[in-house]
Structures are given as C-alpha cells and as structure tokens.
Amino acid sequence: MVKRLLVQGGIVVNDDREWQADVFVEDGIIRNIGSNLAIPEDTKVVDASGKYVIPGGIDPHTHFQLPFMGTVAVDDFDIGSKAAIAGGTTFFIDFVIPAKGQSLIEAYHQWKAWATPKVHCDYGFHVAVTWWSPKVSEEMGILVKDYGVSSFKVFMAYKGAFMLGDEDMYHVFQRCKEIGALVQVHAENGDLVAEGQKKMLAMGITGPEGHELSRPEELEAEATNRAITIANRVNTPVYIVHVMSKGAANVISHHRKEGKRVFGEPIAAGLGCDGTHMWHKDWRHAAAYVMGPPLRPDPTTKFFLMDLLANGDLSCVGTDNCTFCADQKAMGKDDFTKIPNGVNGVEDRMAVVWDMGVNSGKLTPSDFVRVTSSNAARIFNVYPRKGRIDVGSDADIVIWDKNCEKTISAKTHHHAVDFNIFEGMKVKGAAVITIVNGNVVWEKEQLFTTKGSGRYVNRPPFGFTFLGIETRDKVRDELLRKVEREPYTGPVFIPQK
Q1: What's the angle, vertex CA 444, arms to CA 439 and CA 446, rounded to 5?
Q2: For residue 447, which of 413, 495, 494 has the smallest C-alpha distance?
Q3: How many angstroms separate the Cα of 471 from the Cα of each of 49, 466, 467, 468, 475?
Q4: Of 35, 32, 25, which Cα lies nearest the Cα of 1?
Q5: What pLDDT digit, counting tens, does each position of 197-227 carry?
Q6: Measured torsion, CA atoms of residues 112, 115, 119, 123, in degrees rounded to the nearest 10
Q7: What are the strands, taking DSSP E only, across 379-448?
C-alpha cells in the first residue's frame, strides 16, 4: 500500500478541460494538482510524460457471475474486476437480479457476499425489480435508505422470468420517484419477442441468426418509446440500458429534443461490432455474439451510435459484460432461445471508444472522459468522488497513451471467457498505468491488484438526474388546468335496465 504518489509530467484531462499538471495523491485521495509541487521525500513518482492523465473509467453496466439461463457467467467479481482494471476501468456498477418472488434485500446480500471477498476495485449495485408487490415497494425504500442503492432496473423482455407489464412498470417508476432512485430499463417488446421466437422455431430457424430475427430493431424502438412515455407520465428520469439500434437511439434523441429527462447507454459491443457475425457459418462464432437486445446486422449502426454519443444524445458507455464459454453457449445448439445471452467488453471498452471515437475525430479527449467516466459518475451520483481529477476526489487515475497500439484477442485478454467479440481488432490508445485508490495496480502489462480490496460505494438518492423534477411537477400540476364551473342541473339520461 503506497501512502503517497505523484503523477508527474502528464496532461490532465477532465470532461471540461485539459492542461499540463502534476497530481499529488495521499492516502488514496487527490490532495493537490499543479506544477512544481512540494512533496514529501517518500513519495512514489509515476512518470506520465507525453501521456494523458484521466479519471478512472466507470462501467455502469456489468453482470459478473450472474446466474442466468441455466448457468453462471464465467467472469466472476475477481476476474471481472481485474479485466476492468487492465483496460483502465476503476469503478463498476453491477446488477443484483432477484428471482421473481424473491426478496430484493435477500438478493442484495447474496450479491454482496459474492463480491466483497473478490473485488479488486470499488463498485456499486443497481437492483432489478422483477416482480411487484407492497413488499417490493417497501424493500426498495430500505435499499435506498440503508444500503446505498439509488437505481432500479426493470425488464420489458424475458417474458415469464424478469419481464414486467406496463402497469407494474408505472408503479415501479412512481416508487422510484418517491425515493429518489433512477429508473433503468431493458427496452424490448417482450410479448412480441416471445411470438417471434415461436415463429422462427416453427420455420426451422434454430441457429443464432434466429435470435436477431425474432427480436428486430423495431421491437427495441417501440419499447424504448413506451418506457420514456411511462417515465414522462410519472415525471421521473429514465435511463435506457444497452441502446443497440438506430431506431432506439433515434427515439431517445427525439424525446431529449422535447426536453424529456432520458439518458441512453450504448455499450462497447454495439460501438465496436455488428450483428452480421450471427450469420457466420461456424456455430460457435455466431453464438458468441448472442446478447439481448441483439447486435444489429446493419454494419453502420456502430458509427451512428458514436455520432449520438458525440453530440450528447447518448450519455455514457457501459458494457453489459456477461460472459459464457463455448460449452455454455452450446446449451442452445439446437434452439437459439437456449443460448445464454451475453458478451465481453469490460476490458476493451475504453480502447474501443477511444479508437472508434477519438481516433475518428468524433470525440475529443475531454469528450472521451465524459462518455467513459464523468457522465456515469454524475448520473449514478458518485461525482465528483469518482469521474474527475480534482482535489478531494478518489485517486482512481489512468495514464492513457494515445500512441499505444494493440490487437485485441482472447489469447491475451484477462477474461475467463474463451472468446472475444473484438478478436483481431487493432486499436490505438490504451491504459498503460491504472491507479486504484492511490495504488498502481496495472503497469507494464502486469496486474498488481489485491483481491477483496475494492470498496462498496453507497450512492445517495435524488442526484443529478432529479434536478428540476420538482419544478416540472409544479408547472405540470393538472390542478392548474382544472376548470371551476357551476354544477350541471339539466336533464340526465337514465338507461333502461
């Protein structure tokens, strides 16, 4: 454990500016930023000359060791958090997903027990609401008040497992507004997905391509529109997870232009890959790309999503990292509906966004920080503790070399999974040093992490996303439009029994 650290000679980049400065760290906190800093003699010096010094990446969407579709994701909290660090991500928010009928608090404690002894960096939890009752409502309040959870996810897909109908969603959204928690939505029309799956199987389409054919882009766009509409009726902010299509992205863009409080999350897979792989002749290769919502076969989708990330219509980049090996995917060798949904991304997210965004001229280095760290920190209420290089912020810091070139491969990645969806992708720009809580934990392509050293971060309610909601309530109060009139005293038709 290093007590003092000086990151020297680099270009500090936040989401609002970049400048030449040194960064002094003590006891895991940034204590000073500037030039010619007076530092104690026992300070460890990290040379960042010619490189960017950026806030550690934040992945707001992971599923480490998730029990799902009859198996468990192979990247657990140990392997997953190490892979994150190797790619420059220093904080992640995973999802607690209770079974239908299970106590949300019980599920939270189960996930916490899995994570606490294993994590190598700080983390938080979202909690999914997979069923609705007065007990669920009560437990949501307890999770916010006592356990630092300030975001809840609903599924509009996975019928019979996680899916909620519109009425239950409305009640969940209302409860989230009451307790100051952000609503997150997996947006696909679950009823039509189920019918599409039956149709494909009846037609004899059993391979991975049936996954995309059964849940086309319009089902994602329709559900996205419906989720935003429900949120707007409640007047509560909403966050659409894993935006995978032009259609869904356009819906979000449209509603943001109308002033709706909606945030969209593209993921690394959707920015670096496309769904044509599901038509690959090799079944294993095709199945590796199965996730929900699907990667779209339109190869221009990734460029379109990057454009909307650059202009601010989409907010921050997650990964939905949920990995399954070949033998697990093969559970669906004769029926695509049984292929466990999920891909990798937590290690390669930062490099993919830099290469596809900054190297293409669509993002500046400050934009890169905004979409990979700062926006997520604001939206999920850990800013400026996370997501910023500033005095008082946690010393989660990445030294980023814009000239570092590498080829992504399963042979060299730090995941447990035996396949990488970015296999063979050449990227320029990478994390060469990762600092977590003031300790250098990734340097010279080696990890120096400590298992179980990561801290659970409580996230308070009523954060950035709720700004202005109270004023909107007052302005939109239906009582302001109520008409005061004299009682009706005329004749009334009485229908015959």
Answers
A1: 70
A2: 413
A3: 47, 10, 9, 5, 6
A4: 25
A5: 999 999 999 999 999 999 999 999 999 999 9
A6: -40
A7: 397-407, 426-436, 439-443, 446-447
